[in-house]
Amino acid sequence: MGLRPRVPAQRGGPDAEDNPWHTGAACRRDEAGLFFAPSKEPTAARLAREEQAKRVCARCPVLLECRDHALLLPEPYGVWGGLTAAERRVVLARRRRHDQEQDLPIAG
Ligand code: SF4
């Protein structure tokens, strides 16, 4: 497959030297186009592609750094750190809820 729709700096783009963790990324050359959806991708194809991408992530030596990056930015698209965009939204929502609970005044 051709080039990815964008080449994130964190995965080997022009600013990769600012993110040294990325040099070990298993997806540096995503020739199969696993990590970002093509336009108008049917749901079944998306699910299959994301599972394939996650299998690459599972053996990636920088999975945790990548996941942290994607959650911190946050990256809105693609599979990062073994998580889809929807899964990252769930993680971030849980974190927000947790943080809000920590800020609640103690009743009584
Ligand atoms: S964890 Fe996945 S998306 Fe992140 S750098 Fe590794 S292979 Fe790429």
Automatic annotation (TrEMBL):
GO terms for biological process: cell redox homeostasis; negative regulation of DNA-templated transcription. The Fe-S cluster can be nitrosylated by nitric oxide (NO). Residues 26-90 form the 4Fe-4S Wbl-type domain. One of its GO terms (cellular component) is cytoplasm. InterPro entries: 4FE4S_WBL, Whib. Belongs to the WhiB family. This is Transcriptional regulator WhiB. The gene is whiB.
